[in-house]
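FW: tagging you since you asked about this chain on Friday. Here's the raw sequence from the shared folder, copied in full. Didn't touch anything.
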Amino acid sequence: MVIKVENLVKRYGDLIALDHLNMEIKEGEIFGLLGPNGSGKSTAINCILSLLKFDKGTITIFGKEMKPEAYDIKRNIGIILQNVAVFDELTVYENIDYFCGLYISDKKERQILVEEAIAFVGLHDFRKFYPKKLSGGLLRRLNIACGIAHKPKLIILDEPTVAVDPQSRNNILEGIQKLNKQGATIVYTSHYMEEVEQICTNIMIIDNGKAIATGTKEELVGMINTGEKITVELLQPNVEVLKEIRKLPNISSAELNDHLLVVKSSKGKNNLLFLMDHLKNNNISFGKVYSEPPTLNDVFLEITGKKLRD
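HL: got it, structure written out here
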């Protein structure tokens, strides 16, 4: 077990930020912490790293109790927080070299690691640039390079794609998966459901400081009653169609948006088949049909009664 958290409690006065949180992260996982802003994700990470004192509970990393002075543990951890933490006075190369130097004292070894980190995040053409000259996406890449240059066994990323463009976000997510394939265990916090779905092998949904559910994407989806969403292109839209469709088995809602019929179902077999049969039997002409399985956003909505992002 790489990380084990037991009954973690953190209070700010009367506010309970973490409410008896339990968490287990195994070696080789990309473990996703999914929840809205203010759910306790960053607080949990800061407690795990001993950057924040907590009121109750125990935290072990690599089988040892985590404490502020546990430098033997910290040498094997890389941290990329949502707020970019680099020095404006140093170039890209100098920043990475500085942060790598906090762990690696040998200059020749460090030089090799810095070059590998630069290549990994694709900043070779920007190695002499100062941070102020970098775009938001490139700055995020620099932030990641500074956190992973020393080749840590455990990498913690707290909202690393906030306010970056789609291309940079994809580069960052692909990079995280590469780090995992190279042997690193990853902890990834986000309130972007699609990111967690894309890269995480195990997921915890957290809200109000509590672990709501934990499992793979498939396991989490299997916990809820929500079924697939079906979208049908109607060639001759008719509002009267909705009344009968809403009476079909397992149909929770049906809406007509211009020429698109959007049907949401509860869990059950043959929902799409029942709908298609109904349309054919009633001579309702249709074109393209799309069926989408439940998402983590559906899981979060059903379990908590909230949308993941407002």
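FW: Residues 166-181 form the longest helix (16 residues).
HL: agreed, and The domain at 3-221 is CATH 3.40.50.300 (Rossmann fold).
FW: great, closing this out.
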